[in-house]
């Protein structure tokens, strides 16, 4: 697989921000493809002391025997700060034959900083809070009649902000649920799945990564079928 340029080009996908997807073997947690060349060929079990949160997530995935496992864990940046990251493990097809040789059971691995997804929403929230504070200060400097009028405006803004926040949250949770459903189908061996996520943000990038990963699994399945016929 490593010598196939097409497969290698889709086995590792960088997400918007600082996240990425890669591919390994689930039986020995060996990384077959990774964005950092130094990690290729190493076992994820070696993360026990360096990234214990990721190690515990992997252990949960293996020990429970489920097809997919997701969760958060603490990550220490080079500057010493602790950030929250999201990790995801998905067992793909059963052991397959590629170029006449067994591939081993494959596992799809994804990791991303939660900040990359929450920062836009936090920026909107901060902007709304700043506007509210500025409006409140302005109300205090007005007469009673102006104060009443401004209070009405503030209430209207708050209601509008709540409506906007509702639809923004819905636009994020709906595609995430769709991707979860697709991942569940893939874990059951259903490769005839469609990912109907058209957003132009990090969720859209994650959906595109899923599409490319499905293409990779189909590629291997087709190769296996050719090998069986031979």
Question: How is this structure best described in words?
Answer:
The protein has 230 residues and is of the alpha+beta class. It has a single domain (5-119, 165-229), classed as 2-Layer Sandwich (Beta-Lactamase). 51% of the residues lie in helices and 19% in strands. The chain contains five helices and eight strands, in the order αβββαβββββααα. The strands form two sheets. Strands 1, 2, 3, 4, 5 and 8 form a six-stranded antiparallel sheet that branches. The chain has a two-stranded antiparallel ribbon with strand order 6-7. β4 and β5 form a beta hairpin. The protein is elongated and about 85 Å long. The two termini are 19 Å apart. The model has no long low-confidence stretch (mean pLDDT 75).
| CATH architecture field | 2-Layer Sandwich
Please identify the structural class as seen in this structure. Answer: alpha+beta
Shape: elongated
Could you give a short account of the major beta sheet? 6 strands, antiparallel
Distance between the termini: 19 Å
